[in-house]
Model the fold of this input.
Amino acid sequence: MRKLTIFLTVTIGWIFCLAALSLAQAPILREQLVYGLNVFNGKGYGGGFTPYTEDTIYLIADKDNTISANITLVYFWPITGKYVAGFQALNEEVQGTLEILQGGKVIKALEKEDNSLYYPEGYWGESAIFYQGEEAHAYFEKFTQAIEEYYKQISEFYTAQTEYQKNIDEFLNEIKERRDKGEEFTVEEIEKSIPREPKQPTPPILYVTPPKKDYIINLPLGRYKIRIRAEDGTIVQDSEKELVTFASRRTGGTGYEIIPGNRWTRREACDDPSWLIYAAGKNTLYFSPFIQDEYNELYYNKLLDPQNPGREEKWRWVHIQAIKDVTLLFLKGKETLQRIVRVPYYVEQIPGPELGYEIVEFNPEEMFDKQATFEGYKLDLAPTLEKASYEINLEKREGEFFQGGRREVRLVKKENTQSLYIFSIFPLLVGAVVFVTRRRKLGS
Amino acid sequence: MAEKRFSLSIQTVKALSKRDLYSTLRSWGIYVVAFLSFIASSFILKNYLDSIQADDILISADPLNYPLFISVIIISFYLAILSAISISREKDQGTLEVLFYGPVSSLTYILGKYIKDILTYLVMVVFFLVYFWGVSLLTNLGFSYGLLKTILISIFSVSCIVSFGLFISSLTGKMRNSIIWLVGILALFLAVQVGQTILLGMPEENMSPVLTYLGDTLSVVSQGINWISPFSYLTRGIDSVYLENTLLYGLNILYSLAYSAILLLLSIFILKRKGVKG
Done:
């Protein structure tokens, strides 16, 4: 027993020493074949790479995804606990045909194809549309034309701006001279004859990535293997990987992100339709509804970054798109207590010992130099509300509700907490009754 | 002749289970255990209410499910130990030998014990309904249809735990050994399951490498004991309620019945092979 204790102590100590040593070491650069990914994540496209250590690539089934094979320098970054690729130092494209195998047979052999991503809401917008071949070039052409048009408008604007500056100076001088001569003007007269400032053109919102050549993978649900066959017919070393395509378990659900007014940075998710919202009834809640799909946690985390950990037993809801054109109803039975519309809010930092901030409605005219912090539906839960069961729901049009938007809101009765312990005694009371009854029976 | 023997067997099972049931219900043990399980549940519920008070919000599918899970675990543990003690004591004291000179056989004896435990648990189900309904009225935490479904599926899960208890006690001779083995194995199963549930509930980004490795190890162990641990049937049942998956719910009932039947048959077989003298 003593020997075992010493052995375990030494082993554990050794493991911790190893961990400590690894922090002090300089990163070792290794030349590796990695797969660069640009994958569909349910709402848009995201990038990443699969180092040598990851043997499986995860993709959403029946969606276009692009992958490319490159030789690069890879090193371990202990702070994040992940491998990092130094594409700036070395980025050598691997040429060949990407073979997809299932059950040991090659089912597809892919050549690189042109592709690009179209972001209708701009580069920072969440949605993106994938185009390949001629369409990719056509959309990129459309984007470059829009940019050229914008630059042309900007050039015209600067010319107009110079002209305007000249005109306004002349106008002001003229007004001054005429005033000096004793002439008087009304405000309306001045407003009528003052030169108008040219309007600055707005840049195009859309963004299209320049077309590039990648392997485009679109596969049904299943498990596959991939590898690259070089032009000389050999398999490129380290190019073999497992490929898993997966789908959502539940789709088209409605989820909520809830921002409690008393701690706006700690947002709560009420994604599952079976979840209830319990509240103490003295707070303000801001609701942001989303359309959502449910994915396996491991697969989805690995899709976002192949080096992410995850658990195959767990599922996670993924918010796909914000729901905006609806009204949030706060109901008690069939009675509508509040009809709430979506409003932008601004979190104002205020000095003081309390919360340190105040959530105010965002007014773009007064707050022209600021941006709204978030948008949501504000539900005030007053302390005077009866401690009962309520409901929230999303109304598309009068009487027509958004599918899956219903959630129950319950205000709890905190004052009865101690009664729970008293109530727990009742089995003992039943036991006492049984005991006394039996004693009486035996006595008689 | 066969019909007469079958009828006699039924009568014997009835008599044995009735005798043991009355004995259990007339003792204080079951009421004290129910009280303790409700105290544990009340403690959890108080924490829920405190956290709602502090954070002003709690999002949960059914906050009463976890307290119910704890109550079911405590009571089923007690029932399994009670059966194990009862069998071992009857073996030790020679009561079993005397019974087996009469119309009692391994089959009727094990079935009698099993039915007694299930009936005792059904009495506990009534207690659960009263307690959780009362809690819901007192606190406004939802007494949902999901909770009723969980209570229903707990009957089948308890059947698994009770069968497991009977199986272990049929394997062991002395009462002390029975209890040590039973408590040890059940506690181990429970520790793996609770440990894994806690680690699964932790946000991935908050987990240290040690916890991640521990989580992976527990996940592998958990997969290994997935169909052996009787507690897995309860967890799977609760999961099926949470997912609102009727097929999974029905399948879980079938799996629980199959598990119970296999262990009961094994217990009967072992009791027959080892004899009644312990």
Summary: The two ends of chain B are 32 Å apart (CA to CA). The mean pLDDT of chain B is 87. Chain B touches chain A through 48 residues (CB under 8 Å).
